[in-house]
Amino acid sequence: MRRPILFLAIMTLLAGCSSKWGWYVVNPATKSGAINLQFMLGGLKYTVFLSVTAICISVILGLLIALPGLSSRGWLRRASRTYVELVRAVPILVMILWVYYGLPQLSGLTISVFWAGVIALALSDSAFEAEIFRAGIQSIAKGQYEAAHSISLGYIDTMRYVILPQAIRRILPALGNQLVYMLKMSSLVSVIGMPELTRKANELVVSEYRPLEIYTVLVLEYLVLILIVSAGVRWVERRMQTDERN
Q1: Cα(93)–Cα(189) distance, integer angstroms
Q2: pLDDT digits over 166-220, tens only?
Q3: How far apart are CA 19 and CA 28, in angstroms?
């Protein structure tokens, strides 16, 4: 008896709310809805380009920070650890605001919105990348180092040809997760005016006054984008595992 009553209550609630919904603002079948969707999708290229540029820089920077952390010299390990702890303690939004508003005053250089976002995201992510690389390199057996030394490979060649290729295979899932994380965190760059997906949605909400419908489309945009990236990362993982077996 209770289930039919609950069902009727839910249907009545939905029927009452449906009259307040305005999905026409994002309906591709109408001219205005198609224009709004095209306007929102215009931020996709900025989101992808910003995230990919930032992740490439953070991976390189993270590796350069991780290697001193594995050194036998104590001061290098302490310097690496200090950098990681300090950067991880700063929220990404605060880092974005500091880079955009504070860094130009310190350096005297004008930084565009795009590069301010790239620098802030790359700095924030580099600390996590450093820890990922450190864990991956430390997971390689010491016998690999000994084998490399036995054929007279130096430190750089040992890392380049022996250690890092194996470590990257092991940390690839973590690197893929960081790319997904970067795609999501790129939405915070909207606060300084970057015309990416979130900024476009915010501007449309101001003009259309339909936050529910517009932000629902925004959620779907990020969902599809991240699912595609996740599928690509899994495909790369399978290819690397196949190459390793062969």
Answers
A1: 8
A2: 888 889 889 988 999 999 999 999 999 899 999 999 999 998 888 888 999 999 9
A3: 20
Q: Tell me how far apart the alpha carbons of residues 176 and 164 are, in angstroms, rounded to a whole number.
A: 17
- pLDDT < 50 positions in the chain: 1, 6-18
Q: Tokens 């990922």 label which residue?
A: 132
Those residues with Cβ within 8 angstroms of residue 125's Cβ, 6 or more apart along the chain or in another chain: 54, 55, 58, 62, 178, 181, 182
Q: Say how far apart CA 104 and CA 221 lie, in whole Å.
A: 33
Q: Which of 231, 162, 183 is nearest to 58 (CA)?
A: 183
* Domains along the sequence of the chain with CATH: 41-239 (1.10.3720.10)
Contacts 24+ apart (CB under 8 A), 14-22: 21/212, 21/213, 22/208, 22/210, 22/213
